Amino acid sequence: MVNGLTNIPPVKFEGRDSKKALSFKYYNPDEMIQGKKMKDYLKFAMSYWHTLCGDGTDPFGSSTIDRDYSGQTPMEKAKTKADVAFALMQILGIEYFCFHDLDIAPTGNSLKELKNNLIEITDYIKGLMDKTGIKLLWGTANCFSHPRYMNGAGTSPQADIFACAAAQIKNAIDATIKLGGTGYVFWGGREGYETLLNTNMEIELDNMAKLMHMAVDYARSKGFTGDFYIEPKPKEPTKHQYDFDVATVVGFLRKYGLDKDFKMNIEANHATLAGHTFQHELNVARVNNVFGSIDANQGDLLLGWDTDQFPTNVYDTTLCMLEVIKAGGFTNGGLNFDAKVRRASYTMEDIILAYISGMDTFALGLKIANKIIEDGRIDEFVSRRYASYKTGIGADIIAGRTNLEELEKYALELPPVEPHPGKQEYLEAVFNNVMFTV
Ligand code: XUL
Ligand code: CO
User: How much distance in Å is there from the Cα of 251 to the middle of ligand 1?
Assistant: First the structure.
């Protein structure tokens, strides 16, 4: 039975030569990077679901991680769980958290009971937030676990089930506002389909957009000034998820006039499941002005599902942080570890070690990304590669001052044009040259 975490001291930065497992080797929260504290650049958040609720169950075996929090009633257990959550964040120096309604509140036997439980547990969590200074990054509603959502929630073919999802979302928005969250996430777990033989995609997408408009109208009427996010994912649990990737979601937001209120919550493992790199998804979001927040994790390229591992690949976190820096850093968003320990890493110490590893990997990514920008060779190369658009005919193309006939006239007078080399291998070597100092 889990009680609390009383005898683990806070994890401190000790530098790369420290051999102490419970220490940060690279994450030095107060170190300044580009005029900002590292902790404010990274804005790490703890995911309530994996960290406090995930019990190691897989299709072949039952739970390996003790999630039986002490207490006589489901509400008492939920309060112990919250105590453990805040103790863990304090040990790790994590200043934000993210939750689904069902992670923090006992489900009860009806939506009415869930609503009341959510009110009681958020009162309790608010007390812990006031005591510790820990803040809410974003909240969301779990509209995918309950059997009623087997055919979808906002995209359900049944209006009564759509209404249940609306009720849950309203209450999760209330909880987010009450706890001062700066974001509200829609991850469409069951919002997709298995076969078009039973599906009217047009109604489902229209309804999903209606639900999102209702959420925006309601939250804004209650004074919420934060961002709404859609978290794209291409597959799992449904075969065709409507929010496939960032580009698909951008089209959806623009079609339904939601692009003023919604940004993207981009998850590394979802990007790779979509056949993209994490960096690609971040870049598509940045150039479309919808970069918002990040769900940090990594997948296993040999496996075709969402393994949600703690990130250890420094190359990827560097490319990620390059995008974050170029996007001007986080505003309402942050870096939520949507990551879980492996089934055999079942102790509380394993969870702390996993966070240390993930936080250090992102600290390295931030520091190397900053060095790559300071080094300047890659940015200079890219800038030179497009230099022909700065003057002459190129500037006319950019300014929209020319047309096909004029360009034809210009092209017909040109001597044979030699394309410039792309220099990919050289740039990859520059990347390694900056990255490794051994
Ligand atoms: C599922 C996933 C979710 C969302 C929140 O793949 O990433 O945990 O982050 O619902
Ligand atoms: Co996620």
Answer: 21
